[in-house]
């Protein structure tokens, strides 16, 4: 219920209370991916509004590496005083499950403050793939074990995990082909050298709109406003299938209640601003504010789900 509530909850503009905890120095928003990506965009849209609300400079820092583990590890080790916040993505949760030893525990070492946004995924095929609908795609894949390949931006990438979830739920025999990032995987898909992928909408949105790549379905539980004609995988062929990315604010574990409450309030205020809503929607985000309890429940559910898939499929980062 918490997971469904995060996807369905309307984004209301909160009344920002005065008082409570106030920072004593600048705030750092740590983004564990390079500048220019989707999480970075959302962080930079939110930063001016958070700065105005908190009365201190809010700086975005990109600390990349190890599938989000480097930046996430930095925040896990910081003092729990509210001055360092992780702009957490799904890879912040899944990366340590694929590392031995794990550099941090994504559930135990953080305090989730608020869901900020869902990044939908979309199933796209190469041009000329022998299916015109998600039902036909599913039927063809099931009827031809070992014939088809699915692309991702690398081992452990969300597109890889989405393909593994489909494989685990259906028994499909498909071959994973990892690339160094989403862009080369889409290039190879366009060229017809791989058969399909299930990746985040912002990466493929322009190619879908230009009809350069066929889009058959989305990986969220509900259809999305950007492409309302696309069915969900769950409603069409695999009931219960959900694979999507998300962005949250996480603070180090041990952050005091008053600090967490204030930061959760500020996050909700920032994503409710008209400029943030407009730019984020254009980038393919579904903005979804939440309270701390719902954010924590979502993290725990995602950890159980993806941890199981990673263990069962024996997915480990390549050294």
From TrEMBL:
Signal peptide: 1-17
Gene3D superfamilies: Bordetella uptake gene, domain 1 (3.40.190.150), Periplasmic binding protein-like II (3.40.190.10)
Transmembrane residue ranges: none
Keywords: Signal
InterPro entries (alphabetical): BUG, Bug_dom1
UniProt feature coiled coil, ranges: none
UniProt superkingdom: Bacteria
Pfam families registered for this protein in UniProt: TctC
PANTHER family documented for this protein: BLR1237 PROTEIN, TRICARBOXYLATE-BINDING PROTEIN
Family label: Belongs to the UPF0065 (bug) family.
This protein's name: Tripartite tricarboxylate transporter substrate binding protein
């Amino acid at each position: 219920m918490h997971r469904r509530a995060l996807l369905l909850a309307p984004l209301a503009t909160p009344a920002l209370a005065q008082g409570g905890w106030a920072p004593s120095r600048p705030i750092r928003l740590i983004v564990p991916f390079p500048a220019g990506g989707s999480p970075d965009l959302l962080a930079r849209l939110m930063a001016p509004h958070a700065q105005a609300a908190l009365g201190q400079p809010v700086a975005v820092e990109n600390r990349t590496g190890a599938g989000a583990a480097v930046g996430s590890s930095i925040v896990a080790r910081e003092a729990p005083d509210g001055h360092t916040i992780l702009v957490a993505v799904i890879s912040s949760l899944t990366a340590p499950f694929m590392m031995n030893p794990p550099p941090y525990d994504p559930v135990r070492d953080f305090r989730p403050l608020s869901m900020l946004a869902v990044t939908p995924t979309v199933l796209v095929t190469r041009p000329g793939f022998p299916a015109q609908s998600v039902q036909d795609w599913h039927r063809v894949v099931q009827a031809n074990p070992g014939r088809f390949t699915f692309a991702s931006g690398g081992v452990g990438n969300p597109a890889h995990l989405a393909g593994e979830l489909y494989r685990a739920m259906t028994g499909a025999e498909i071959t994973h082909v990892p690339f160094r990032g989403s862009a080369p995987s889409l290039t190879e898909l366009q060229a017809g050298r791989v058969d399909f992928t299930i990746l985040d909408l912002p990466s493929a949105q322009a190619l879908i709109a230009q009809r350069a790549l066929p889009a058959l379905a989305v990986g969220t539980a509900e259809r999305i406003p950007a492409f309302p004609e696309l069915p969900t995988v769950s409603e069409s062929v695999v009931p219960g299938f959900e694979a999507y990315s998300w962005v949250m604010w996480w603070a180090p574990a041990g952050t005091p209640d008053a600090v967490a409450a204030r930061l959760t309030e500020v996050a909700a205020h920032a994503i409710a601003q008209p400029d943030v809503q407009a730019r984020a929607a254009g980038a393919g985000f579904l903005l979804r504010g939440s309270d701390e309890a719902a954010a924590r429940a979502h993290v725990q559910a995602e950890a159980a789900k993806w941890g199981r898939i990673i263990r069962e499929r024996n997915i480990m980062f390549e050294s």
